[in-house]
Amino acid sequence: MTPSRVEVITAVERRRRWPQAEKERLVALSLEPGTSASQIARVDAG
């Protein structure tokens, strides 16, 4: 399988700080039946 997108990170970045509401939204998504972490990441990125 060939990746459709490659991201090159050139700068040193610190860890992201997520607002509490965003954390709660992501956790709620993860608790839905049949949901995978990669699905949540794709929805969150777009």
Automatic annotation (TrEMBL):
InterPro entries: Transposase_8 (IPR002514). This is Transposase.
